[in-house]
UniProtKB/TrEMBL annotation:
This is Recombination protein RecR. The keyword Membrane does not apply. Residues 83-178 form the Toprim domain. The gene is recR. May play a role in DNA repair. It seems to be involved in an RecBC-independent recombinational process of DNA repair. It may act with RecF and RecO. It comes from Desulfoscipio gibsoniae DSM 7213.
Length: 202
């Protein structure tokens, strides 16, 4: 069966939407037709929001989380405990833990995990700035909240070997999280129990 051909501009819009993670060709078509049939201001607002995010959102100079003010609101919050740093792989993990509402420390975002096969080594991760934060002597505990999969475990072990000689307590999230799962998909109760049940890495 011959595939229907769309006008050049529409075909390009569908193609660009289909490039987004989790968006297949049928969903891309539905989104494209929705945008074309919606009032013009809907598409304009979406385009403006994308442009503004690309222009203003950057990494926090302290923790590496995505923010439009530097330092980010978490790092500048006087009610947070700067003596406990929770290390995560991705900015989405910060959002997941914040939903729990029980963690009162601060964060450090690595922007990935060690993966030799994919060419991701320590230099590609936000590790140097983490060690710089620990050098001040104010941090009592580092929670390694990397994902419970092969890459996450390898990253946690690598970081633990760097941090423990500094005399800082290093803990890992409890295994209430399913092996191979990502933090962003965990519910608040499971994630909360994992944080509360964290254990020290020997």
């Amino acid at each position: 069966m011959k595939q229907m051909q769309y006008a050049g501009a529409l075909s390009r819009l569908i193609g660009e939407l289909a490039r987004l993670p989790g968006i297949g060709s049928k969903t891309a078509q539905r989104l494209a037709f929705y945008l074309l049939n919606a009032p013009p201001e809907v598409a304009v607002r979406l385009a403006d929001a994308i442009r503004e995010a690309r222009e203003k959102v950057r990494r926090c100079s302290l923790c590496g989380n995505l923010t439009d003010v530097d330092p980010c609101p978490v790092c500048t919050n006087q009610n947070r405990n700067n003596g406990i740093i929770c290390v995560v792989q991705d900015p989405r993990d910060v959002v997941a833990i914040e939903k729990y509402r029980g963690f009162k420390g601060v964060y450090h975002v690595l922007h990935g995990a060690l993966s030799p096969l994919a060419g991701v080594g320590p230099e590609e991760l936000n590790i140097k700035s983490l060690l710089a934060r620990l050098a001040g002597g104010r941090v009592q505990e580092v929670i390694l909240a990397t994902n419970p999969d092969v890459e996450g475990d390898a990253t946690a072990l690598y970081l633990a070997r760097l941090i423990k000689p500094l005399g800082i307590k290093v803990t890992r999230l409890a295994r209430g999280l399913p092996v191979g799962a990502h933090l962003e998909y965990a519910d608040e109760v499971t994630l909360g129990r994992a944080i509360e049940g964290r254990r020290e890495i020997e």
